[in-house]
User: What shape does this take?
Amino acid sequence: MSFIFREKWIWIIIAGSIGAGVVPWIAMWTILGIPDVLRPVPVWIIILSWAIAAGYKDWAMDEKKRERLTHSTG
Assistant: This one.
């Protein structure tokens, strides 16, 4: 059982799990801590970043699909 503690992947999983729980909490408190006038700015940045990432994902999937179609027909 002690060999598990020497595996790097277990520590990556543990750190990722802790990060997934802690980072949004810190982001929320940071957003709530800034002045009311500036509070919408990070929220809109998060929303726009999410939209850009989703658009890029859709584009990449479509590009991969087109690449497969051209290679299968050519």
The helical segments are 8-33, 40-73. The mean pLDDT is 91. The chain has two domains: 1-33, 37-74.
